[in-house]
Amino acid sequence: MRKNVMRALTAAGTAIAAIGLSMTPADAATGWDRCPNTYFCLFSGANGQGTIAYFHVGSPNLAGQGIDNAATSFWNRTVDNAFSLCDGYNGLEPHLTSVFFGAKGNLDPSVDNRASSVVQGPFNCHY
After folding, report:
1. Backbone phi and psi for residue 35, each to the nearest 5 degrees, phi listed first
2. With left for phi above 0 and alpha for psi between -120 and 50, is residue 81 left, alpha or beta?
3. C-alpha 114, offset from chain centre
4. CB atoms within 10 A of CB 108
5. What's the fold here for domain 32-120?
6. Are 8 and 1 in contact (CB under 8 A)?
7. Between the CA of residue 19 and those of 6, 7, 10, 12, 25, what are the distances in Å?
8. Which of 38, 59, 65, 81 is such that its CA lies 20 to 30 A from the CA of 91?
9. What Cα–Cα distance (Å) separates residue 47 from each residue in 11, 31, 35, 75, 105?
10. Cis omega before residue 94 (within 30°)?
11. How far apart are CA 104 and CA 33, in angstroms?
12. Residue 125: how many CA atoms within 13 Å on its side-chain side?
């Protein structure tokens, strides 16, 4: 009888191990899906790839987020805010582009990898 119990336990353990090996963890968000709802996001790669930085109010120096002069794509998931990408630190000119709420895409090649700061509001870079 003891042998039968041991066989049953061994078979049950093998079945549990097999089930555990076949389970996979939930996939982590990738690409665009990494941008949290209600945030403005910048990505260092095209189409939401690469390093991500996300904001509620902007950043005076994108080096702090590891994306200074490296932004290539964006997604504005805020409800009603626009953001300006500025070539200078602290929201200084020249103004590169404004991104309105709901907009998602790649930056124009003329402003790709040029943003040094982000400020809330359209056309809001200043001297």
Report:
1. -75, 115
2. beta
3. 18
4. 9
5. Gamma-B Crystallin; domain 1 (2.60.20)
6. no
7. 20, 18, 14, 11, 13
8. 38
9. 49, 7, 12, 9, 6
10. yes
11. 12
12. 19
Produce one character per residue of 63-72: b if its CB has 16 or more CB atoms within 10 Å, e if not: eebebbebbb
Alpha-carbon gap, residue 108 to 105, rounded angstroms: 9
Tokens matching residue 20: 């555990």
Please identify which residue in the block is written with the tokens 């120096």: 61
- Ranges of residues in the chain with a pLDDT under 50 are 5-6, 8-10, 12-25
**79-95 burial code (b ≥16 CB/10 A, e <16):** eebbbbbbbbeebbeeb
